[in-house]
Structures are given as structure tokens and as C-alpha cells.
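__Record contents__

***
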Amino acid sequence: MKTLTAKVGNIKIGSGHKIVVQSMCNTHTNDIAATVKQCIDLYNAGAELVRITVPTMSNIEDVKKIKNILSEKSYNIPIVADIHFSSKIAIGIAPFVEKVRINPGNFHKDHNKACEEFAKLVQVCKQYDTAIRIGINHGSLGERLTMLYGNTAEAMAKAAEEWISLCKENDFYNVVISLKASNTIVMVKAYRLLSERMKEDGLVFPLHLGVTEAGNGDAGRIKSCVGIASLLSEGIGNTIRVSLTEDPLEEIPVAKHIADRYDNLKQSSLIKSHIDNKTAYLSYRDNNKEIIMLDLACDFGKSLLDRKIDNIVLNDVEYKENTIPVKADEKLKNYWIDELLQACRRKFYRPEYIACPGCGRTMYNLEKVFADVQARTAKFKDTIIAVMGCIVNGPGEMADADWGYVGEGNKKVSIYKKHEAIVKHVDEDKALDILVELIENDNKNIKKQS
């Protein structure tokens, strides 16, 4: 069934249009020069939409200035305003950007009042031809939905259906939907549920795909490929972001590779495969080692998620280093397999990390802190640890985490156990020691009780 088309400035998202790659600035929005530069860098690297956080009313003027400077420099970059909680800010910024990203359920604790605020935003967006992305996140569903459906993929799909219904009531269709989770199983299931229900309804809105808080390095890339490619391979999804806890520019090559594959502009580097007794035996060849890793995750992540296969054996894997053909050794092959199994939640050979990519709300060096947390906590194999950039949406977004390190600003940190902040206002230079000590003590207590 044909997907509706959303118009975001000069970009069209939906059936008959190529997969749109986007990213997000991690500069502070009031640092106008830095944000303009990052917008241009991301655009030149291949990002077709660029998202900017708008945490305060004063940032509306900052965004207007950023837009004016980009226009003066002849950069016609569609800007997406990222809003958390405040319908007032969303309504205020809507006339000046091409798209507003919101989670309407966060507009008010009372669902009826949240609906009223969302309807007001829709009217402004209709007036100014501004698109809306309704962004439902696994970690911020709200008590009303989780009481009905649990903290589940079903609850995510139901949330999206409610806001879609309100869009239809208001005759507004310039809409994109996202259902993000850091758990690839939950993320894929939520999108599949919503996609099927939209088809049954006869009106399919375009979908923005991403694995939220995927982390960094190979793990973040593999996890993103698993979630995004599993859906694109089924014809689900129209625009994507690979969210990495790195410089946003590093997201673009991965996202472009995925998009090119499912726009049929690239072929997989897989050269040979067969499956026997739910084990896939594979061979790959490419000039670029990372491309093979990405292709492996795209090719077989879905089969692992859906339990069509249980394991992978990499036979011949060949790439080039300084133009010289090299065969991957067993250590590298086993490492890729372990990471893929972990991304699909089939095996946990190390801690599972949830880490946001950072944005203008982040008040500390997120990349460095995340690397430090990974180094100090590597021994906690069966533990899920979140490192979040801010207190605004961090606690909600780390739904699956056993432990959380969340920046408060002013060089202070809160340490979470599950959903509870058990230590608050800790100095940054002490927070990691406290986190490690708490995990160690908790593990000792668990062993005593077992």
C-alpha cells in the first residue's frame, strides 16, 4: 500500500521517494556560529534534514538567526526543531522551521489537555505548512499507557495510533511517525505493529526509523543496522537516523550506506552463504572492512531477531588495507559475531550500554564520560548501563537500564538504579567511582541472596 508523502521544506518523505538521511546538532543552540557550522558540515556530508534542540523560548530567536545565516550562505537546509515537553515552545517555533519533532504525550500529564495542546500546534503547522514528527519513545510512554499495556511495543503503537487519529480529526497529514527504542526487539516489533495497523486502516503515514541511544563505535553501528535494516527490508520506513554517541558527522556514512542499500543503489558485500540447522555460514569480500561489518548486521540481524537462525559462522572474510588484500582473523570474526548477537539480544558477552548521542541540552563531555564508563564497567557482563546527556529526557529514555549515569548540569550527576535516582547532585569527578561501587555492592548482595 502506498505511503502518504510528508513535505519538509524541499524534501519529500514517503512512497516513491528515496530514503531520507538525517542527523542532529549537538551544539548548544545559543552558540549560533557553532550550530550554523555544524548544520553546514552535516548537510555537506549527506544529511538532508538537520535537527536542532529548542529547549527554551529564547532559543526560538536563536533558531531564526541560524536559519537566516544559512539562507544568506545559500544553504537551503530544512531544519527540524526538537521539542521536549513544552507545547508553548513547539507552537512558537513552528512558523520558522520546516518540521517540529514532538512527543505530544509529554505536553501535559492530563491526556485530554495534552490533546488540546497538540490540536493547537496542528493548526499552526497547517497555517505555515510545517511538518510534524510524532516521536514516540519506549522510555517516555507515560503512566496512562503503561498501566494499560505495560512498557511494551504494543503501548508504543497504541500511543502513535492515538495521535494519528487526532491528526486525521484535524485534517492534517503532513506527518511522520517514529517509534524509537534502544532495545532492537522492542523497536522492530513496535514499527511492525503500527505499520500493519495503518495498512488495515487504509492510511499509511511515513515512518522515521532509528535505534535510540545506540551508543558508539562498532556496537552502535551494528545495533543501528540491525534495527533499521530489519524494517527497511520489509518495506517499512522512509527516513532514518543513526544515533551515535560521537561527533554527528560520524553518523552520516553509516546512514547513507543503509539508505543506499535499500534504495537499491548498493549491493551487499556478501559473496557466499548457506544455512544449516539454524546456523548461517557466510563469506564476505569488500575493499572496506567496516562495510563488511555493516553488511553483516544488515543481512542477518533480522534473521537473528526473528529467531530464523541462532548462530553465525564467518568463513572467508576479505578486505583491503593500504590496497593489500587481507583475510580477517578469527578474533575479528568472532568479535563481529558477538556484537551482532548482542545487538539482537541473543547473547550478552559484555555489558549492554545505552547512551544518547548528545544535543544542545547536554551539559558535559558526553563522549569522554561514556568512554570512561565503558572502560570502568566492562567487567559487569550481565548489566545494562545508561549514560544520558541531560536530566530532561535522560531518565525516561533509559527504560531498559539497570543503572544510569545522568547529567544534571553545573558539573553534577544523578545515579539511577532502574527508574529511581538513588544518588543526586554528585560532583562529576566522583560520580563514576560511586556508580562502580554501587554496582559492585549490588552484585555482592545478589550473590549472597542466591
Remarks:
- The mean pLDDT is 93.
- The radius of gyration is 22 Å.
- The domain at 352-449 is CATH 3.30.413.10 (Sulfite Reductase Hemoprotein; domain 1).
- Residues 428-449 form the longest helix (22 residues).
